[in-house]
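Input/output pair, single chain:
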Amino acid sequence: MHEKCPNCNLRYEKQPGNFYGAMYVSYAISTGIFLVTAFILYHFFNDPSLEVYLITILVVALVLFPINFRFSRILFLYIIWKSN
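Output:
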């Protein structure tokens, strides 16, 4: 993120609860990723062993972490902005 606005030179500051709110949104997105991955494994790969579940979910979560990190912050800011 930019430290200052490129147009008006306003310094961006975070709200006190910004990180906590984005963290809860990230938890919700991660839970959705876990559930969708487990559903796909169960229904399309004939219910594999527990190790396959754990490894697959871990790999998918790690691959999607950068997207989840950015998207959760954006989504939380959008939620806060619409509520004001």
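The two ends are 22 Å apart (CA to CA). The chain has one domain: 18-83.
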